[in-house]
Amino acid sequence: MKYDVVIIGASAGGLTTAISARKFYPDKSVLVIRKEKVGMVPCGIPYIFGTLKSVDDDILPVKKFLEPLGIEILTDEVTDIDPKKKVVKTKSGKEIAWEKLVLATGSRPAKPDFPGVDLDGIYTVPKDYEYLKKLRERVEEAEKIVIVGGGFIALEVGDEIRKLGKDVTLVVRSRLLRSSFDPEFSRIVEERLKEAGIKIVYGQVERFLGNGKVEKVKLLDGSEIPADLVILSTGYRPNVDLAVKAGLKVTRYGIWTDEYMRTSHPDIFAVGDCVEHRDFFTGKPHPLMLASTATFEARIAGANLFKLQIVRENRRTIGAYSTHIAGLTLAAAGLTEEAAKREGFEIIVGRATGPDRHPAKFPDTSTVTVKLIFSRDRGAILGAQIAGGKSVGEMINILALAIQKRLTASELYTLQIATHPLLTASPIGYQILKAAEDALAKLRT
User: Fold this and answer.
1) pLDDT per residue over 180-201, tens digit each?
2) Measured between alpha carbons, how far is 431 from 441 in angstroms, rounded to an integer?
3) For this structure, is 43 an active site residue?
4) What angle, rounded to 10 degrees, do the helices at 392-404 and 431-443 form?
5) CA neighbor of 83 nearest in space, from 163, 190, 6
6) d(C-alpha 394, C-alpha 365), whole Å
7) How many CA atoms lie within 13 A of 419 on its CB side?
8) What is the pTM (predicted TM-score) of this model?
9) pLDDT band at 445 (very low <50, low <70, confident <90, very high)
10) How far apart are CA 134 and CA 138, in angstroms?
């Protein structure tokens, strides 16, 4: 059998590529090959432990997205790609020819090689339905749960498990959310987690102890933490095995692509977690695994499979994040203050704090703190961090656009906005404008 477009992978990147390909090339045949019979909504996985009633509540409705568009789905595992013959081979013995191929093979959890890591009761957090069902059962049975890691997944999983009344300890090597936030925001989330009842231990794991089943986590300083269950959340690795076998250019960060998501083979594209991403400001490769980034890349790939229709003006990745932990929303985009200084930028920082409703007596009011990082030379925005209520989730998208368009502190200060007492901060104290104002005042001194 032959298709115009074959996509390997059916998570956020694969689905979005398929939908975009159908929209831009309605006469082309599209096939999505997925290894898993049941897919998960990646960003929803932490919530299967508390907010959602079961793992089934987080199932990704692949057929609902694709079948109404006439996109075919094959559940099988691709084992080989022949770039010369333009054929993929599957585990069941099928050979499928393609005109354009898209790799959306995602990522898998990194599993550190600590002594005792193979003891029963030690888990990672993959996008695997059956595995997650078993993990959820073990979480319900356990009382003392240790989570190793200080990133988004570790914090979200820990916060969800503590809602079940479990004894949760986070083991953090450095500080919370270090790659995305500056220290003052790490302290904000640390305080909130401690208030919620989560223990935070700073240190490095030496080994796991137990007789067949994990019983303790031993740290390098000699201290031991009792554990009925351990969850490792120490990062993810790109799934690049197929790309390597096919002879595509692959780096330690993932599959190399150009600005239109074309790999080193002109008819093979790649999107999402399996791809090497490059920093928006420096061009340096860096690990970035976000569904929002995957769908952004997928729209670029899907639209440009057969001809360049959508010009990608910004050829690198900003990295825009948001999370909601223990009632606190955190969001960031672009460079942190630490990262900007490390890269050699001369910067100015603007800050603002205030309520996100006006007057602040409304019952759902939250205090929002905004930090903006600007270059000193021309005042262009380099990064943003926000903490507060749920309004933060969309505020960061305004700032992500500002970064993409390289807006200045002056342009943000004069941004024309809509406000409403029940929905936003006061127009007098709107935090993005006030943080820009703070930076402008410093630029003129």
Assistant:
1) 999 999 999 999 999 999 999 9
2) 15
3) yes
4) 40
5) 6
6) 16
7) 19
8) 0.92
9) low
10) 6
79-125 tens-digit pLDDT: 999 999 999 999 999 999 999 999 999 999 999 999 999 999 999 99
With both helix axes pointing from N to C terminus, report the angle between 291-303 and 12-24 in degrees, rounded to the nearest 10.
30
Domains of the chain as residue ranges with CATH = 2-106+239-303 (3.50.50.60), 109-235 (3.50.50.60), 327-444 (3.30.390.30)
Which amino acid, residue 127? K
Task: Identify which of 130, 179, 129, 134 has the alpha carbon closest to the alpha carbon of residue 153.
Answer: 179
Catalytic-labelled residue, pool 43, 74, 110, 219: 43
Which tokens hold the place of 288? 């970035």
Q: With 60 as the cut, is the pLDDT of residue 306 above it?
A: yes
Tokens of 372: 């903006």
Structure tokens belonging to residue 236: 């993810």
Measured distance CA(109)–CA(119) in Å, rounded: 17
